[in-house]
Amino acid sequence: MINKVEICGVNTSKLPVLKNEEMRELFQAMQSGDASAREQLIQGNLRLVLSVIQRFSNRGEYVDDLFQVGCIGLIKAIDNFDLSQNVRFSTYAVPMIIGEIRRYLRDNNAVRVSRSLRDIAYKALQVREKLVSIHGSEPTIAQIAEELQIPREEVVFALDAIQEPVSLFEPIYNDGGDPILVMDQISDDRNTDESWLEEIAIKEAMKKLNNREKHIISLRFFQGKTQMEVADEIGISQAQVSRLEKAALKQLRKYI
To answer: Is 61 exposed, middle or buried (0-12, 13-18, 19+ CB in 10 A)?
Structure first.
């Protein structure tokens, strides 16, 4: 879909490309009140939007929708670009386009985050964009928190809350053979070989117990019942349950 010619009615194969000098002249004209210069800047940078949305091509979103949202980010970048800063327009615009698309994806996410957290996260992203444009480098969380005058932990928590979920089947590496997926890099402490072997050992040891001992161990440790509940169920005293349980556990330890 990315390679199709028509996106939102725009013939992408005929999009103009502006040179740096042309860009500077158009920015000067726009800032002097020339509305046609602003339109030329938008048209002349649509290829930048196309290059950015390719990063999001595996999200299952319509390319037309991503393109329109990217154009909003482009327009914001054009309206806020400062010619006095020694920064190329593309360097300033790309993070703003990406930020706009990410906001769109977050707002359309099935995972809901509270409004207060989203507000903090969006403010943090806006501060980040501002600091990048001023300093030309990625700010630290501490710098963002200082700018917002809120604790660093709140910024971290808010940004974590709006992170997009990643599919377990998303490929993270491919050397030409079978891809390595996210799920291949995740460990499960509950389903390790050791726990699997331990479960087999317990089952084998349970076979060494008599029927009453098996029943008591099952009720106590697999169904979570108290000794009193077990005593009531099988019709013996709690003292007898306790004695039989200790004997059964001793037997189990011998075989495990």
So the answer is: middle
Please state the three-class secondary structure of the chain as a single string: CCCCCEECCEEHHHCCCCCHHHHHHHHHHHHCCCHHHHHHHHHHCHHHHHHHHHHHCCCCCCHHHHHHHHHHHHHHHHHHCCCCCCCCHHHHHHHHHHHHHHHHHHHCCCCCCCHHHHHHHHHHHHHHHHHHHHHCCCCCHHHHHHHHCCCHHHHHHHHHHCCCCCCCCCEEECCCCCCEEHHHHCCCHHHCHHHHHHHHHHHHHHCCCCHHHHHHHHHHHHCCCCHHHHHHHHCCCHHHHHHHHHHHHHHHHHHC
Q: Could you tell me the pLDDT band of residue 133, with boundaries at 50, 70 and 90?
A: confident
Task: Work out the number of other CB atoms within 10 angstroms of the CB of residue 16.
Answer: 11
The span from the CA of 228 to the CA of 218, in Å, is: 14
Which pTM was predicted? 0.44
pLDDT band at 174 (very low <50, low <70, confident <90, very high): low
Residue with tokens 């998303």: 170
Q: Alpha-carbon torsion 12, 14, 18, 23, what sign?
A: negative
**Angstrom distance (rounded) from CA 193 to CA 208:** 24
- Please provide residue 180's backbone torsions phi and psi, each rounded to the nearest 5 degrees: -95, 125
